[in-house]
Amino acid sequence: MLETLSEIIDLRDPHVLGHSKQVSSYAAAIAGGMKLNARQVELIRKGALLHDIGKLGIPEDILAKPARLTTEEYEVIKRHAVLGAELVEKSPSLRALIPIIRHHHEHFNGNGYPDKLKGNQINIEARIVAVADAIEAMSSDRPYRKALSPRNVISELKKHAGSQFDPLIVDKVLSMVEFQPGLREADSEPQSELTRILMTSLPPS
């Protein structure tokens, strides 16, 4: 049911088809690599599937705009974190996902949104989804830019560790992907290669 709902969410934005499932795969792989317990990994997997559910309340002309957003449009988009948390709050079985959905755009240095949380004020699940979300976004084509190569994705993660991202999570991702065979030949297909690397890094069940 959650996977179907994630597909409905992504259908609102033609530029990010499959985004939520991919973020969920990345996030679960990272959580597994960090040796989080099975309950946390499953919470992260589910939360990542629904992290953008608030976009159901964002006007379609903004979601589907084939160019960079204006400052005013970006402020509208930012509402999706709070809208998503409010939507999920109405379902008792999904309330545990609220911190992930509300806080996946918080930054480690406190400059994110909606609540300007910083460091360990942001729960570990949301911090992991934030990194997974960024990896997927950077690894995918957008109307205004092409996907980054795996090498450049890694460079961006390093650049923003400690500011946007939890540096410990970035370190874990780097340990999972940076020295894997094939990474440097994957510039033509960054998303599929990062998927392979992260998913094959999952510890045995």
- Tally of extended strands? 0
Mean pLDDT reading: 85
* Number of helices in the DSSP assignment: 11
Distance from first to last alpha carbon: 23 Å
CATH class term:
Mainly Alpha
Category from helices, strands and their pairing: mainly alpha
Largest sheet report: none
Principal-axis shape equals globular
Helical residue percent? 55-70%
Uncertain runs are 181-191
Q: Secondary-structure element sequence?
A: HHHHHHHHHHH
What does the radius of gyration come to?
16 Å
CATH topology: Hypothetical protein af1432
Provide the CATH superfamily: Hypothetical protein af1432
**What count of structural domains?**
1
Describe this structure in words.
This protein is mostly helical and 205 residues long. The chain has one domain (2-200): Orthogonal Bundle (Hypothetical protein af1432). It has eleven helices and no strands. The protein has helices at residues 2-11, 19-33, 38-49, 60-63, 71-78, 80-89, 98-103, 124-138, 150-160, 167-177, 190-200. Helix 2 (19-33) crosses helix 8 and helix 9 (150-160) packs antiparallel against helix 10 (167-177). Residues 181-191 have low confidence and may be disordered.
Provide a quick synopsis of the model.
With 205 residues, the chain is mostly helical. The chain contains eleven helices and no strands.
